[in-house]
Specification:
The two termini are 12 Å apart. This protein is globular. The strands form three sheets. Strands 3, 5, 6, 7, 8, 15 and 16 form a seven-stranded mixed sheet that branches. Strands 11-10-9-12-13-14 form a six-stranded parallel sheet, sandwiched between helices. Helices cover 23% and strands 29% of the residues. The protein folds into two domains: 152 residues, Medium-chain alcohol dehydrogenases, catalytic domain (Quinone Oxidoreductase, Chain A, domain 1), CATH 3.90.180.10; 125 residues, Rossmann fold.
Length: 316
């Protein structure tokens, strides 16, 4: 529907009314929201599927008011800017992260202008929708938390995944040496991303191969995180996005950080978009589903071992 047309008073959205498995997802008609203040009402073209989505669905992410629309990141077109969203006009192609109380598994979503950037013309909506959560998480872990520098060595766990695949490319762009772990099926893919070394974690334990890294980027947690302390330099840093790092070994000066993505860093998202638009970072969309198949998309995400990003699309 063109942005100049009067929008419908209701829209299709995927909501949950209770926590649980994929069967709690419901595609239903809900009221179309109205933007206030600096909010934008965005007509969604595509949206990224993230591990946080199924964790949200299962009730793992704290206090959530139900029913709730699923999803966080999106790419689309401004339908109606709020009265204080002066940097955007109706019809602008944009991408970013929804605001609190909204969700991107829908025909429309509300997003504060502080979490939205203009979409480069070089990017398709399915590509732009892949960026916000995954790329910002990787960027903030490597640069805001770990302060990764040229010439340093970083070990990236699950390097073929949505976050890991960006982390490998950001590390190489920075001039660091990137080592990734991946399954045998994805070793070649991670090498194509630019990794200097890729370890098939089924064939060999990474701590038998890797030594003296400056940074470990943990996207898995559990035993993988515990074993990662052994490969750090004495003054290295372990950055996790899945759980606060466990106690470090005795007599070690190594540090740790737990990163929660800051969606408001539109400056960082804009920098990343420029890198993609100029071919310095590649986006891998492994699978796309229509919004009606949100359940299949979340099942695939929850099964793990995906390559790149899963995207739900509403329009091409």
């Amino acid at each position: 529907m063109p942005a100049t047309m009067t929008k419908a008073t209701t829209m299709k959205a995927v909501r949950i009314h209770s926590f649980g498995g994929p069967d709690v997802l419901r595609l239903e008609d809900v009221p179309t929201p109205e933007p206030k203040g600096d909010e934008l009402l965005v007509r969604i073209h595509a949206l990224g599927v993230n591990p946080a989505d199924w964790k949200f669905r299962e009730g793992r992410l704290g206090q959530i008011t139900l029913p709730a629309i699923m999803g966080s990141d999106f790419s689309g077109e401004v339908e109606t800017p709020g009265p204080h969203a002066t940097d955007f006009r109706a019809g602008d192609a944009v991408f970013g992260v929804v605001g609190d109380g909204s969700g991107s598994y829908a025909e429309y979503a509300l997003a504060p202008s502080s979490q939205v950037v203009h979409k480069p013309a070089e990017l398709k909506h399915t590509e732009a929708a892949s960026l916000p959560i995954s790329s910002l998480t990787a960027w903030q872990a490597l640069f805001d938390a770990a302060n990764l520098q040229p010439g340093q060595k970083i070990l990236i766990h699950a390097a073929a995944g949505g976050v890991g695949s960006f982390a490998v490319q950001f590390a190489k762009w920075k001039g660091a040496q990137a080592i990734g772990t991946a399954s045998a099926d994805h070793v070649a893919f991670v090498r194509q991303l630019g990794a200097d070394q890729v370890i098939d974690y089924h064939a060999k334990a990474f701590e038998e191969v890797v030594r003296e890294v400056d940074v470990v980027f943990d996207t898995i947690g559990g035993e993988t995180q515990k074993r990662s302390w052994n490969v750090l330099k004495p003054d290295g840093i372990l950055v996790s996005i899945v759980q606060p790092p466990s106690a470090k070994p005795a007599r070690s000066a190594a540090r740790s950080a737990f990163v929660v993505c800051d969606h408001r860093r539109k400056d960082e998202l804009g920098t990343i978009a420029d890198l993609v638009a100029h071919g310095q970072v590649k986006i891998t969309v492994s699978t796309t589903f229509p919004l009606t198949e949100a359940r299949k998309a979340q099942e695939l995400s929850q099964a793990g071992h995906t390559k790149g990003k899963i995207v739900l699309r509403l329009e091409d």
